[in-house]
Hints:
alpha/beta; 2 domains; five-stranded mixed β-sheet
Amino acid sequence: MASILCIETSTEVCSVALSVDGAIVGQREDASGKNHALLLTLFAEEVMKASHRSFNQLDAIAVSGGPGSYTGLRIGVSTAKGLCYAAGLPLIAIPSLEAMAHHVVHNLSIWGYGTNEQLLFCPMIDARRMEVYAAIYNNQMQLIRNIQADIIDHLSFEELLQNYKILFFGNGAGKCKSSLLHPNALFLENITTSACYMAKPAEEAFLQDKFADVAYYEPYYLKDFVATVPTKNIFHSKPEANLPEE
């Protein structure tokens, strides 16, 4: 039986959950936006205190491995590494999209779908404008299409939609509704990233000894980080004086 602290910071959601044998026994979450650096360690301490456990009693730390917000991922991974070093724990990295897909695939009845339906699953994370980070899984959690940064238009996923119903979900899915008008494009509402969704995949990874290298692990950013200057300040400020957009 493994006790794993799960950390999810790949989007606007800052989330921490403690799982024991794959079941959630404590969680803290905030979806207000860019408070990850302030809240993450506080949430971790509160979750551990509420469960009457110390960090030394954990078996592993799991962290969202991307893609997603460059800043959010760096905060999550650096915090996870620090906890691993301090307590001598192994690190587990769970792809952000995989965790969301795992949650939906194993809880289809919540949305009125049966497990025997021929469905594909497309978690989406907002990457600004009409771009999303997306992947496609089947109901066995096998990758049908690898993680990509997609600019969504009316032709997106056309080949797959001809033959399969695809469930789209995540904080990037809502803005795609007006473009993905095929009758086989179905949308699930109010699904965001969450440390709670990482519990089962993290438990599976732990049992299979699938650990990341604490010293060298880097999250999967997918796109290079680009620091920009807000247009209204471009003639008045130096680039380094402005906070970068994610």
